[in-house]
Amino acid sequence: MKSLIDYMEEAKVFYMATAEDNKPAVRPIGGKPVLGENGFVVEDGKIYFYTDKRKSMYKQMTSNPDIAMTFIVADGFVRLNAKPVFDNNGGVKEKMLEENKSLTVLYSLEDEFFEVYYLDDVSAFLFAKGQEPRKLA
Prior knowledge:
By secondary structure, the protein is α+β, with helices and mostly antiparallel strands. It is built from three helices and eight strands, in the order αββββαββαββ. A hairpin with a 2-residue loop joins strand 3 and strand 4.
């Protein structure tokens, strides 16, 4: 049976929702399938994504830490709710840049705007046609 990470590796592009002033904001995040990049890394059992401190997404996540994601997979789609935990982990940043080479055009390890965060308090379900939702996390 596939795990949440297996489904994430399959999908590669995730639609993430944040909120500002009680208004939702949804955007695609994650990798670039054409380049073979996931846009996330797994370290110590935690799923890490990246953002830029100058973006509204970062400001929204810091003011309201409830986020939601959805992504399409061959079996259906996954819905995920979580809280981002910002973690200035140099090892994770390095791994993020190594596994997602296209980011090196925008960021470096020393970049003050390059931020990584992991998903905490994760609740994820797979929705497959004709089946009850299956809990993944």
